[in-house]
Amino acid sequence: MIDLLPADFAFSQSNLQTFSYCRRRFYLRYIRKLIWPDQVVSDQQYAQDRDAGVRFHRLVHQFFLGFDNALLRKVAEADPDPRISDWLEAFFISPVSRLEGKLYPEALYTTIIADHPLNAKVDLLQIEDDAVRIFDWKTSRQLPKIASLQRQAQSKVYPLVVSNVFRKLPDGKPVENLTMVYWEANFPDQGIEINSSPPDWQKYEVEITTLIDMILSLSAEEFVLTPDQRKCAWCEYRSYCHRREEKTASDEFQQELLDDKRKVPEDVIDLWGAV
Fold first, then answer.
1. Can you say how many angstroms the Cα of residue 130 is from the centroid of all Cα atoms in its chain?
2. Residue 269 included in any domain
């Protein structure tokens, strides 16, 4: 075992997804902890989408904390990006704004996998009767394909962590299934649900354990560059790798970068401040 990472390093869907896309990016960010020298793209659309996603996440978080809808609307209407108001209105009229049962917004859950913490920062966890649902708010420009989401680390890490933390329902019965709900603000009527059960969680644990063991076994030289240079166009570390050509990155990689950066910290509830 090569000790490039600290013993208490916490794995997450974000850093595991980063490793899956490019080992070198994982190495530069999480092991060498280098700053981001590059703007992601010259096109400002990426930054606008990322920042708008952060602000929308904050408003939804504040909704579930009990902030007044009228006040949230005022904040959204005052936002320079008109999409924020549209997204919030879509959220207000969607069934996801009327969820019942026990609701846990912006919660961080942790379990231990391969002797390391594995974290899941959940936008919203709902426990209602015998149903356990994990909600994730998305602001994608295109509706993701379910097959693509099923491959993502998030769709495996979140159910695995939550199933380890919540082993029993309030009535004492064991948790037998989870639903991962991806709610898209641009497609509010086309939410994507991914169901899982104990056999799936066991499979996820094997996959994630294997991936973590691989990461921990690599030497610095083995954190190699991705062969797919399309991903480099959207990577802030590309100048370290002498890959500066702007090419079309995959939708999955663009979404992973956005999700990686727009998660609101647990303690951010200031209605007016910026993350």
1. 25
2. no
Domain count, the chain: 1
Pick from 77, 81, 95, 87: which is nearest to 56 by CA?
87
Rounded distance between C-alpha atoms, residue 61 and residue 104, angstroms: 10
* CATH number of the domain enclosing 228: 3.90.320
The structure tokens listed for 110 are 């942790």
Q: What whole-number distance in Å separates Cα of residue 166 and Cα of residue 136?
A: 18
Distance CA 175, CA 198 (A): 9
pTM for this predicted structure: 0.85
What DSSP character marks residue 174? B
> Could you list the pLDDT tens digit for every one of the 275 residues in the chain?
568 999 889 999 999 999 999 999 999 999 999 877 665 554 577 778 889 999 999 999 999 999 999 999 999 999 999 999 999 999 999 999 999 999 999 999 999 999 999 999 999 999 998 899 999 999 998 999 999 999 999 999 999 999 999 988 888 889 999 999 999 999 999 989 999 999 999 999 999 999 999 999 999 999 999 998 888 877 888 888 887 655 444 455 555 555 544 443 332 222 222 22
Which residue range(s) make up the domain with 169?
Answer: 11-261
- CB 206: neighbour CB atoms within 10 A? 10
CA dist 12 and 119 (Å) reads 5
H-type alpha helices, the chain: 13-21, 23-26, 45-64, 69-78, 82-93, 146-151, 154-165, 198-217, 251-262
Confirm if 11 and 212 have CB atoms less than 8 A apart: yes
Would 254 be classed as within a structural domain? yes
- Give, rounded to a whole angstrom, the gap between the first and last alpha carbons of the chain: 37
